[in-house]
Amino acid sequence: MPSYGDCQTADIDATPERCFEVLTDYEHLPEWQGAVRAARVLERDEQGRGSVVEYEVDARVKTVRYRLKQVYDEPRRLASEYLGGDFRDFSGEWRFEPAGDGRTRAELDLKIDPGRFVPGPVRRAIADAVMKRALQDLKAHLESAGVPARG
Fold first, then answer.
1. pLDDT at 149 over 60
2. Cβ contacts of residue 123 below 8 Å, gap of 6+?
3. Are 120 and 130 in contact (CB under 8 A)?
4. Please, what is the Cα angle at 128 between 127 and 130, to 5 degrees?
5. Contact at 8 Å (CB) between 65 and 86?
6. Percent of the chain with pLDDT strictly greater than 90
7. Which of 66, 78, 70 is nearest to 16 (CA)?
8. Three-state DSSP state, 4
9. pTM to 2 decimals?
């Protein structure tokens, strides 16, 4: 079966540290990530960060569920290892690079193997829901007024 992947970038008016902080506040993702219906931290690492997170995502054509092991290189990189769910395989990586003046170049690189053939329109809808909207939502959330930093 073919796997599908894409890499998207966005410039965000926030520091890499702030991008990383907001993205790893898993319990609050559904409040601002439009496609994320639920994010549950199943295990935490010795620093209290979510190490195994279960997601429920509205991919427009279907709600998909999956569990990821989070791999941290704070604040520049958040990678994910697939532990199970509705895909055959799923891997992703967020990267945050300083872009000057407190801005960040955010990049999301995803590869998804659904385990079966997925027609082009469905594949595009999933890619839009999981990837493009994720970056757009992160940017919009961080650039909106009144987004407090975690204490």
1. no
2. 4
3. no
4. 65
5. yes
6. 61
7. 78
8. strand
9. 0.85
User: Is 1 a residue whose pLDDT tops 50?
Assistant: no
**Contact criterion met (CB below 8 Å) for 68 and 93:** no
Name the H helices within the chain.
16-23, 29-32, 120-127, 133-143
Q: State the pairing for strand pair 103-113/77-85.
A: unpaired
Please give the Cα distance from 75 to 21 (Å, whole number): 8
Q: Any residues with CB less than 8 A from the CB of 78 and at least 6 apart, and which?
A: 20, 23, 24, 70, 71, 72, 93, 94
Task: For residue range 28-85, list pLDDT tens digits in order.
Answer: 999 999 889 999 999 999 999 999 999 998 877 778 899 999 999 999 999 999 999 9
